[in-house]
Write a structure and sequence with these properties.
Strands 1-2-3-4-8-5 form a six-stranded mixed β-sheet, with helices on both faces. A two-stranded antiparallel sheet has the order 6-7. α1 crosses α7 and α8 packs across α9. A hairpin with a 7-residue loop joins β1 and β2. Helices cover 50% and strands 19% of the residues. The relative contact order is 0.14. The model has no long low-confidence stretch (mean pLDDT 88). With 264 residues, the chain is an alpha/beta fold.
């Protein structure tokens, strides 16, 4: 058995589902897809020269950045949905990210509750003050509706390991409640599994399991991106910089006239 709190089959299935989400976004990047949201040629020009990179490295980096933006959702899926397989936890379709119940109650700072409702964030700084206030008030509302519960903001990338009351400023007033808590992911794993180092063990099991699944996954293939080659072909007879500028600025004054002159 890899981990005590989740079966090997469920652990591998969950990782496989996460990998498949990556696969859905691994379509080949041609020039049209690269410029789907219109890239910023000036930024790429500065990046290339300041960092001393080649154009091929810069284009690959931009493709990686665009993919990575989508893949953050896959990692959010991984962190949230693994709790579907852990005893006492459910992952509702709406409302809360995770709900945890335990027979005999859940100990929190000397207090005991029947249910813990969770909002999960990948990183501690992803919420602005408005989003934080909205989440805190949502938790206050849950406490009013259910007197035997606690609410937790669980952060995967937290500033430190912690399970503390969440203090926040609302309308200029400091607000804090014993049953509204800010919890790092390691402490939440400990809460639901009873194992202090459960999150550590899960992390240690990940590399070999991911590698094993990728070796067996015939359908999961990294695509060949063609955007750089297409840009080089466009640059024949002029410069790579001009071909890049045309991606973002082809309708702008000066650039559109350049296209018209070359077409004649």
């Amino acid at each position: 058995m890899i981990l005590n709190f989740i079966s090997d089959a469920n652990f591998k299935e969950h990782i496989r589902e996460t990998i498949l989400q990556y696969g859905e976004r691994l379509q080949s990047y041609d020039l049209e897809k690269l410029n789907g949201n219109i890239i910023d040629p000036i930024k790429l020009l500065f990046d290339k020269n300041v960092y001393g990179s080649t154009w091929e490295e810069i284009i690959r980096s931009e493709i990686f950045r665009q993919r990575d933006k989508s893949n953050n959702n896959s990692i959010g899926y991984f962190h949230q949905n693994i709790f579907r397989y852990i005893a006492g936890c459910t992952v509702p379709k709406l409302g809360w990210d995770v709900v945890f119940k335990k027979k005999g109650g859940i100990e929190l700072d000397g207090d005991k509750v029947d249910t813990v409702y969770v909002e999960m964030k990948n990183k501690h700084n992803t919420m602005n003050s408005s989003a934080s206030a909205k989440t805190f008030m949502k938790m206050q509302g849950q406490l009013l509706r259910d007197g035997d519960c606690a609410c937790c903001l669980v952060e995967v990338i937290s500033k430190k390991s912690q399970n503390i009351p969440w203090a926040i400023s609302l309308d200029g007033q400091k607000q804090k409640h014993l049953r509204i808590r800010r919890v790092s992911i390691d402490k939440f794993y400990e809460l639901v599994t009873g194992e202090e180092d459960a999150f550590y063990k899960m992390c240690m099991a990940l590399p070999a399991t991911i590698k094993e699944l990728l070796e067996d996954a015939d359908t999961f293939k990294v695509p060949e991106d063609t955007a750089f080659v297409e840009l080089k072909e466009k640059a024949v007879g002029s410069s790579f910089e001009l071909a890049l500028f045309m991606l973002g600025f082809e309708t702008y004054s000066g650039f559109k006239e350049k296209i018209f002159r070359e077409a004649k």
